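User: We ran a pulldown and think these components assemble together. Before we commit to crystallization trials, I'd like a predicted model of the whole complex to look at. Sequences follow.
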Amino acid sequence: MTHHLAPDQQLELYYWMRLTRAFDESMIAYWKQGKGIGGTFSQRGHEAISVSAAYALEPDDVIAPMHRDLGAYLLRGLSPRRIFANLLGREAGVSRGRDANLHGMGDLERNIIGFVSHLPHSLPVAVGAAMSFTYRKEPRVALTFTGDGASSTGLFHESLNLAAVQRAPIVVIVENNQYAYSTPLAQQTAVPDIAERASGYGMPGVMLDGNDVEAVYAGVREAVDRARAGDGPTLIEAKTMRMLGHAVHDGAEYVPAELLAAWEEKDPIRRYTRLLLERDVADAQELAEIDRRCEVEMLDAIEWAEQMPLPQADTVTERVYAA
Amino acid sequence: MATESLTYGFADAPEAPSADRQITYIAAISEALREEMRRNENVFVMGEDVGGGFGGAFKVTKGLADEFGDGRVMNMPLAEGGFVGAGTGMALMGLRPVIEMQFADFISSAFDIIVQFAATAHYRWDGAVPWVIRAPSDGGIRSGPFHSQNPEAWFIHTPGLKVVAPATPADAKGLLTAAIRDNNPVIYFESKPLYRSVKGYVPAGEHVTPLGQANLVRSGSDLSIITYGSQVREALTAAAALAQSGIEADVLDLRTLKPLDEEAILETARKTGKIMVVHAANQLAGLGGEIAARIAEKAFEWLDAPVCRLGGLDTPIPFSPPLEDAYRPNALKIEALARELAAY
Ligand SMILES: Cc1ncc(C[n+]2csc(CCOP(=O)(O)OP(=O)(O)O)c2C)c(N)n1
Ligand SMILES: [Mg+2]
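Assistant: Here's a predicted model for the assembly, 667 residues in total across the polymer chains.
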């Protein structure tokens, strides 16, 4: 591995994946109790990708996550409190009640670009952020995520072509989780490896095991370094599985049980737990302590978010325009 | 044909004409671009064919690459969604892209990014998007259904955008300067038939036409013609003909279509009590409907006749001259409707 991760870094990756999972589990339990507002998207299965991609960036780099990238938001410094408040439509939420679930969680001070529902619209915008670095000769990189379904859009093609022709310092990660809502990959594209398309744009295409947190980190880090060195964009396909429904309302009965069972064996957090124990980076008790810390953080976040006020109705027309 | 007359109607523009500063509408656009690029290194242009020595389909950006280099005059692949998206990302990072549509008609290929992403980013998470899209719009020049459109209503209907449409060289410069300096996404509809057919006084150096301010370009007490873009010239032609029959018209040039200068609209409505709204865009669900509604809501007691509208027909814009002339408002049609209104 080109980028060796020290033991404390390995534990950090473990912590962020755990926190992402704890958030996801509390969120889904909360919604199942009927207390949620609107809908929200499951994260299970995507933790290794969103966490390690964000971990591979410098603070000055720009990230444009999508709806499966809770881990990236957490890593970038949005607290579980403020994110849960966003889910509950609170004034203290990242979008101040203006947008639902993880949508609208942009924060330029943390170099986060918020997404819209329309896919893959963060992609050209992130390419533009990367082009601004070239324009200003700044040694910064942009990174964005998109889905296997979103890779079928015209804008996906337009954006990758533009990124390549501009040699933009960007890393594009396709989180191939085998489904777009109920549509399986085979009905989405006739080319099973989306990374293969990269050659059609004139950029490297990299296929990664999206459930191997260190493999994703290494692959993303290499692409980030290449972008920072002025060698242009990379298309990364990280293969994983959406382990729950598309969103909380979706039972995903259309996903074959055997498929889920096979992927359950490859659960990114369980795999990493085994690896850390094997390597003696931590013992079971130390890992359990991290798990407990994450649970406590989530209890605190939910309690805090529930106590936060909803926005005042008379602020509804504020901030449509920048001053 | 009225669209081919040269300087009509602008000799009595509000600024005193000065012989050395009579420039065309299109030159005024280029001048604003060049001056803003000199003033602020964050300002740059991007679009199809804008770079190198070519300077865009209409040559608005010609010479800019020589002065500012290719890095600030960026040729884009044929991908409006992609490069308006990229412009949005660059704007979020604090740059000020001026994005050229080759023709306004092609803005529909970037519609999604404009209305879903750029227009909502500030409301949702304080993401300011200070770009300008320059959209060469408008017809009357026999360019057919896909090189003649006036799609401003789509964008006026979109919260978070601003929309402008200059009618004179001075405002072409002043509104573009203001649009570039504004911290929001602004769509700048420039009128192709005005490009080289109109010359007028344009102040040298810094010249800003504030957004949101209409301009009363002719004063009369019998009726009001509220309009914008190339139809201002048509309205002034009509008003001159009406004056020969003793009918004096107010002509209000809106200049900014969003946000609307409601005060100016209500003021002329209350003054004359007889209002017509004219635009080259098709009439159905166009801006004229909104203006008529606001007048009905807020100046009803002052009205002496129903507010009437004149706009394009509810058809694609036809190519062949008799068909396009039937489609499109012009000075003669304005004059005819104004005579009916005056007689009401
Ligand atoms: C342009 C567009 N059409 C439809 C939708 C509705 N929609 C939301 S997510 C989704 C599936 C996306 O699949 P994929 O890109 O694979 O991402 P995933 O949800 O699997 O992570 C769809 C169809 C959308 N958001 N955008
Ligand atoms: Mg998918």
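Strands of chain A lie at 62-64, 142-147, 170-176, 179-180, 183-184, 205-209, 234-239. That may be worth checking against your pulldown data before setting up trials.

User: Thanks, that helps.
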